[in-house]
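Researcher: Go.
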Amino acid sequence: MAPISLSEVLNYDPRLPRFVQLDLDYASPDFVLDTNVTSAADMFSLGLLIIALYNSPHRSPLEVNGSLSAYKRKFSSSSSAPTQTNNFLSSQALPRDVASGLLPRLITRRPAQRLSAREFQQAQYFDNILVSTIRFLDSLPAKTPNEKSQFMRGLPRILNQFPKSVLEKKVLPALLEETKDRELLSLVLQNVFKIIATLPSGKRPFTEKVIPRLREVFLSNSNKGAALERDSLKEAGLMVLLENMQTVAENSSGKEFKDGKSTNCLSTAHY
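Model: Structure:
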C-alpha cells in the first residue's frame, strides 16, 4: 500500500466524514506549515487542547474550519496566532501557572523549545497536593499498610478541593477497591461517605457503586465455615456505616431503604 502524502492529510476533503480527517484547529504549525512530523508537534497540539479546556465554550483558539489558507493566515502574524501576549487567544483568563509556566513551553513556534512528554509530566504545574493524591491512588496497591493507613487518615482534609467529577469517577472507585483490605475498611468507608455527602448527585454513585460493595463486604459468605468469632475490623466498618445512616437514607431510594438493600448488612454485626 502506497503511503499517504502529507498534502492528502492537510487538505480537507468534503467527500469524507470530518471525524476521519486532520483537525487543523489542533494541529501544530511545524506539521502544517513545515511538513515536519515529530513528537514535538503532538506537544503543541496538547497545548491547544489545554487552552480549549479553559475556553468557554471549549474550542481551540485557532478555529480555521478545516481551511489550510485560514490556518496559514493565523500564523502569518503574532497577533492572530496564540501567544502569551494575547492570552493564547483564550476567551477566559488562564491560571497564572498555566499561562506563564506551562503553555509558553508548549505553544511555541520552535519545536526544539517545547517540553517533551516526560518534561510535561514533571512540570511545576503538576506539583500540587491534588495531583500527588491521584498519583498515590494509582500506586496504592503497591504501598505498604502503614503508607495506606496514613494516606487514608489525611485524605478527608483535601477531598473538598477536588472537582466533583474527579471524586466520583476517579477517587471513589479507587477507594471502593480498597474495601477488600479489612485493616483499612473503617478508614476507607469514612472517606467514601464523605465523598457521597459532598457530591450534588450522590444518590446515583451510592446506588450503583457503594451499595453493591457494602453488600459484598458485609454479607460475604466466605466465613461460613470459620469459627464464630467477632471480627473487630469488620465491626469497626459497621460502626462507620451506622454513624453515616443519615447519608445512607438520603442517597437510597425509598424502596431500597425499605427492602434493606443498603442496611441489611447491619445484621452481620454479630456472627
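Model: DSSP finds 14 helices and no strands in the chain.
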